[in-house]
Structure prediction request, 324 residues.
Amino acid sequence: MDAVGQFFVELWGALAGFFQRDLGEVLRDCLDIGLVAVLIYWGLVIIRGTRAMQMAAGLVLLFVGYLVSSRLGLITIWTILDSLVTYFVLVVVVIFQADIRRALMRVGRGPLFRGQRTARETAVIEEVVKAATALAQKRIGGLVVFEREAELNEFIESGTVLDASVSKELLYSIFIPSFENPMHDGAVIIRDGRVWQAGAFLPLTGGSHDRTLGTRHRAALGISEETDAVVVVVSEERGATSLCFNGNIVRNLDGDSLRDALFGLFYRPQKAAAAAAPAAKKKKAAQKKKKKKKPAERTSLVPDDDEAALASAAAARSAEESHG
Prediction:
């Protein structure tokens, strides 16, 4: 207890001495500390949602144990940890090599350089929602993965590289079940707003989930548990659409709910509202049209041209009756 008390006394003395210096030196050191804090923050953002986050927490605990054992005079523990700290840099490079490579590749694509991507990402989400809705209506299974900060290379079994623009037609055609279409059984991976791969295989979840979940849903949960990816799943048995993220699953989503959920995951609240505004306007316009049509529940079997002629004739007849 004396050692702990002495530690806090020395800490307080160091803080007091820090602020008793010249103002210029204090501001310079505060700037230095702030820059280090920003670097640490961005490092945590890069590894967030990956298995490297757990490893980083373990390394931090080891380093804290090293400092505490040194302060308390725990010689045996300090000697063991000291041998690990000696090779700390090498350990970090080996463990986080994939994350370091990804960080260096994305230095020029940080938030300051992404102001023009909102429209494209919104269009990508719209195409995926349209494709998922069409697949659900036809009861065709589908699996679409949005890669985010964590690269999926080390977690998936690679499929066919396409590097194509995201469109409803392309996604729909990929998942059409056919012996001549080997890509329909796997997942579509969307990277940087483009269809990167099709027919990729994902790791299955190892957790205890609903036994009614099929292989597609277990694969979607598996990749969302391992990384920060967001996955859209369409069930061919029930014709229902689900969304998986962070090891969670939201089931039975319609097109509007899926769109709102994706906007909420990929954008901040302000951006999500702005991005969803065009879709909301379209929805309101469609609702107004439905209200104007009296026989809203009727499914017409009359060809479009004939139906338009019948509608105009009915309108003319009602106008004559009102004048009469």
Confidence is low (pLDDT under 50) at residues 109-117, 269-277, 293-310.
